[in-house]
Amino acid sequence: MALYRVTPTHIDQLVAEEIASNTRPLPEKIAELVTWGADEHLLLGCAAAAWAIATARRSPLQPAATHWLLVTMASAALRHVLKLAFDQVRPDRKTVRGHLHGIPISGDAMDAFPSGHALHMGALASAAAPLPRKYRLVAWTTALSLAGTRVVVLAHWLTDVVAGFAMGIALERGIRRLTGYPNCYIRRMLSPQDEGVD
After folding, report:
1. Within a 10 A sphere around the Cβ of 189, how many other Cβ atoms?
2. How many Å apart are CA 161 and CA 9, to the nearest integer?
3. Confidence of residue 21 (pLDDT cuts 50, 70, 90)
4. Are 137 and 129 in contact (CB under 8 A)?
5. Are 32 and 17 in contact (CB under 8 A)?
6. For the chain, does the N or the C end have fewer beta carbons within 10 angstroms?
7. Among the CATH numbers 3.40.50.300, 3.40.50.1820, 1.20.144.10, 1.10.3720.10, which is that of 10-191?
8. pLDDT reported for residue 98
9. What is the rounded CA–CA span in Å between residue 110 and residue 53?
10. Helices of type H across the chain
């Protein structure tokens, strides 16, 4: 049994009720497919592959790839710890009308807080902060959109997603102290020809 029981706020309930009342099967199906882009298994696989490729090629992106891999692993681990500590019923378990309108059933009924998908997205969006502006904008837009799908499919209350995203940012910033990111990435990008020389 979890240590803490979290209850949805009044705003959470209003947002969920609005979605349940006004959504339709097609947008729900699209959101359900899109939300897989923030799944921890997919993210871990992509981060591991990027790290392996960058390391094998001695790419100047290798320090960044190492940081992103560690962030992805840490956010996956933190998600599981938090799900053990907190209980909150998912909004999709609180609506019959929503299911008639296409709302799917998501995960374990009491695993609403925090949103693990949003935690991953917050961490990876934060890691993208040192990138050039155009890449940073793409990363943040993608991360916020993917996190938002968790509200659309009523897998999480709005505050679960906001809290998860904020936790992800805080986690990534903490991991920077261990990895030296982004300074290691910037140094490597400025002088890649010096790397790998004995």
Report:
1. 14
2. 13
3. very high
4. no
5. no
6. C
7. 1.20.144.10
8. 85
9. 38
10. 10-22, 25-34, 40-56, 62-85, 97-100, 116-127, 133-152, 158-179, 183-190
Strand pairing report for 86-87 and 4-5: parallel
Instruction: Tell me what pLDDT residue 61 has.
Output: 81
Contact 164, 118 (CB under 8 A): yes
Q: Which two tokens mark 177?
A: 């102290």
Closest by Cα among 113, 126, 100, 99 to 181: 126
Residues 32-91 have pLDDT tens digits of 999 999 999 999 999 999 999 999 998 888 888 999 999 999 999 999 999 999 999 999
Mean pLDDT for the stretch of residues 5-18: 95
Q: Band of the pLDDT at 1, cuts 50, 70, 90?
A: low
Size (the chain), residues: 198
Check residue 195 and give its pLDDT: 44
Token match 């709005």: residue?
Answer: 158
Name the residue with tokens 């002088």.
191
Six-digit token pair at 120? Answer: 């991953």
Mean pLDDT computed over every residue of the chain: 90
Cα distance between residue 52 and residue 169, in whole Å: 24
CA–CA distance, 191 with 149 (Å, rounded to integer) = 40
- Residues 36-75, buried b or exposed e (16+ Cβ, 10 A)? ebbebeebbeebeebbeebeeeebbbbbbbbbbbbbbbbb
Question: What is the reported pTM?
Answer: 0.88
